[in-house]
Amino acid sequence: MFRLGLLVCFYDDLELLDATVAQVLLHQMIKCSHLRGFQTGVQKLKAELLDIATENQMLNETLGSLSDAVVGLTHSQLESLSPEAVHGAISTLNQVSGWAKSQVIILSAKYLAHEKVLSFHNVSQMGALLAGVSTQAFCSMNSKDLSQVLRSAVSQYVSDLSPAQQQGILSKMVEAGDTASGIVEIQGAFFKEVSLFDLRRQPGFNSTVLKDKELGRSQALFLYELLLKTTRRPEELLSAGQLVKGVTCSHIDAMSTDFFLAHFQDFQNNFALLSPYQVNCLAWKYWEVSRLSMPPFLLAALPARYLASVPASQCVPFLISLGKSWLDSLVLDSYKKTSVLRKVQQCLDNSIADEYTVDIMGNLLCHLPAAIIDRGISPRAWATALHGLRDCPDLNHEQKAAVRLKLLGQYGLPQHWTADTTKDLGPFLVLFSGDELSSIATKFPEILLQAASKMARTLPPKEFLWAVFESVRNSSDKIPSSDPMPGCHGVAAPSSNDIFKLAEANACWALEDLRCMEEDTFIRTVELLGAVQGFSRPQLMTLKEKAIQVWDMPSYWREHHIASLGRIVLALNESELEQLNLNSIDTVAFLTQQIEWSPRQAESILQGFLDDSGYNIQDLKSFHLVGLGATLCAINITEIPLIKISEFRVVVARIGTLLCSTHVLAEFKRKAEVVFGDPTEWTSSVLQELGTIAAGLTKAELRMLDKDLMPYFQPSAIKCLPDEIFKELSVEQIASLGPENAAAVTHAQRRRLSPLQLQSLQQALDGAKTHSWQHAPASSGPTRTSSSGSPAGAPLSWGLWLGCPLLVLMAKLLW
């Protein structure tokens, strides 16, 4: 066995194996995770070996010798373990990857039952099981122990914690008193959870301390402004990575020409962190101070007419520069994007001649019009172009059709493809019809499954999923149950192996198939089924009934049951939700991970938590508010004033992610005024922190906001503004929204705008210059002129006024 190496992953002679040999094989199979494309078979083999290794054995005694196959143990097997057994095997269990949430909950409870008191020592041993520690348990820990946890190796698992658990840790550290040192110790992405309120009352930050922390935009806006006032070396702020998120247009405007040009590379190095509005500001600054040396991709952030300034001699730098960025994040307006792509086509002369041209295009390849894909790519360039197209995340319908026709022309119909051709074209199989894929499903089912497994992050077309489904069903054993449920005689119900192979294609099961699923199959695969995005409401209802059949009524379900159900919980009606035991905020947090609750379901969850926990609204802690998630939108608006300010102020950003009704947002806005003052006093960082809460502003409050604050609304807040309030924005405010917020304006909001407001909105989408600029030194190169004859970028035709004092006076008054 030791000499088999990776061949152990294909071992299939299991009949004569005993438990000891099965355990040795399982240990040898750890290396099988390195195999690409064979994980379905590996999973099945591990499950069979696990059954042999645990048969007639005391699980408490063999737990530590089951290697990473322990993730295949069922809930009942894990619950049968003693706390002592889990404690003894913790050095194995804490290193295993692939645990389901429900398994982590059970094992953590067993481990902590042995430990009694939660300390740094025993928490540091938990590794991958850390996410099973309850929020309340974290809050009961000594703050010094928590600080040690965040500095230790186990901190890598903090990102696996729910928002409620993370807020529980934060609240405990802040409660300890020495907030500044506690906050400084928080590293990585966890730092984003620190509230703006806590940041604003803490001194002692510097660019060095912040280098290893991920910042939210509201944090960055506040900290950059704060540190800019105290630092003697502002260039250190730009080189501190995440702090560039906080650079505003006024900061960019205030930079001298020499400083800006010397440190523009810092912006370019952190381009992915910049908002479209910041890129627009950088583009205008560069245009003002040194347009001849301007990086060509920045022209895409200026109004479309500025693309005309790219001469043919600069096409290659323009394509290379633009191809290194993602056009969808740089240009949000479809009209403007069309103009940019027209310039790209002009530079290409509507054709791609060779591999070199493909290389310089970079990400622009994903935006090639269908006509160029179909007729403009030479045979010499096609292979390289095809390799680049496979990484494009969002080809449109016309582009996909063009690629499909090109492939059919090159390789013929799929029924004639070889295995190698099918493998090579794996990412493009989704482009073909169900009929075209049927031959692939029959000839090369494993290749089709491998292609499907690589699409886990996206939802493939239904026809592709059906082809995957048919290939698995055709190759399945299809053995009807020897003891079928009533009405299931002759039905070949899903097997565990089928469900594991199908992934998102499980959405193709008929209701009858799901209803006839064996209980053991459901227990082993419930987590996978709960993760399927494509299940219809009737399918979810059928799976919910199966859960009731297996686990009894919802009143008997425990936290790990609810955690394992995933989207299946959406099928619970109000009465069934009321039966759940919701006394733990962690249980509620598993429910609120789903975002498709109806208002009545959300109200049942919120009320269920209050009833079962015994809390009143005024008793809720910050981590309760975070854990309740979108169910907070179901709160009675008369109860919002009862929420403690001390708890609300540290979770404003989390509440600001909720898409609540206007009335609820308006009440949260009143609460925000207690924390941040009158809306006339709000800063850019406050608006960012508030998120959708800012959509609760009244007409009068919205009109009073400085136009320079408009880019700092979050796009979600713009969408949440009622149509009748949004139309009250002035022409100047709308023009100052910035590209991202302008793109967030809904069709309903647009319909209420006047022609002048619509014109301002188009200016914001186009990246027109609306922010105030100081006069920058003139470029050393010649001044480019616009089509009107005035200097490019000049707001008015100054030449008309120079000869007439009266017109000059009028111009000054108007400007």
TrEMBL record:
A single GO BP: cell-matrix adhesion
Main location: membrane
Database matches in InterPro entries: Mesothelin, Stereocilin-rel
Keyword Transcription assigned: no
Keyword Signal (UniProt): yes
Region (Disordered): 771-790
Annotated compartments: Membrane
One GO CC term on file: membrane
Pfam families named in the record: Mesothelin
Keywords: Cell adhesion, Glycoprotein, Membrane, Signal
Biased composition (Low complexity): 776-790
Family note: Belongs to the mesothelin family.
Name under which the protein is recorded: Otoancorin
Lineage: Eukaryota, Metazoa, Chordata, Craniata, Vertebrata
